[in-house]
Amino acid sequence: MKKVHPNADSKVEEAVLTVWKRSLLFNCNGFTVFDGKGDLLFRVDNYMQGNKGSILLMDANGKPLLTIRRKKMSLGLGDNWLVYEGEETTSTPRFSVKKSLNLFNNKRLAYVIGNDRSNKIMYEIEGSYSQRRCAVLGDNRRLAAEIKRKESSGGVVFGTDVFRLTVQPDNIRTDFAMALVILLDQMF
């Protein structure tokens, strides 16, 4: 018997993005992100020196997707980054990210907490951002996204300003994964 919906059980294909740690605008800090076809997908253009204000993740046309804002914590408890939908920062954040301060687990770089009051950890980020080798792990330590050094087809490795972000869309939104890259860049 033939299946009525042959693609219903198939896994959503992973998204492989190329991230370039450079703004398309002159004299700006930021990121330019391309999809697997080479089309512009996301951009971050930050005019402020030291990224002290909000950081805005935009689509290819400049439409605001996510706003990232740093929240300083008192008593040296580390910083907390809040991520909001669009350009709105007065509503409840979608999630927050905290740098891991656990001395016993030095593999864990940061963790992502949902916007509900349970303070449940949605994702853990492990690896080394400076070497562009990180994994974003979700429920049951299932891989949601991965940052890796980019290699050319000839095997030549690019510098740390060009790298690959592989996203499992059934585990994390692509724009959320890019927001985590931006936050890792802020933290490390």
UniProtKB/TrEMBL annotation:
<dbReference type="Pfam" id="PF04525">
    <property type="entry name" value="LOR"/>
</dbReference>
<protein>
    <recommendedName>
        <fullName>Protein LURP-one-related 8</fullName>
    </recommendedName>
</protein>
<dbReference type="InterPro" id="IPR025659">
    <property type="entry name" value="Tubby-like_C"/>
</dbReference>
<comment type="similarity">
    <text>Belongs to the LOR family.</text>
</comment>
<dbReference type="InterPro" id="IPR038595">
    <property type="entry name" value="LOR_sf"/>
</dbReference>
<dbReference type="InterPro" id="IPR007612">
    <property type="entry name" value="LOR"/>
</dbReference>
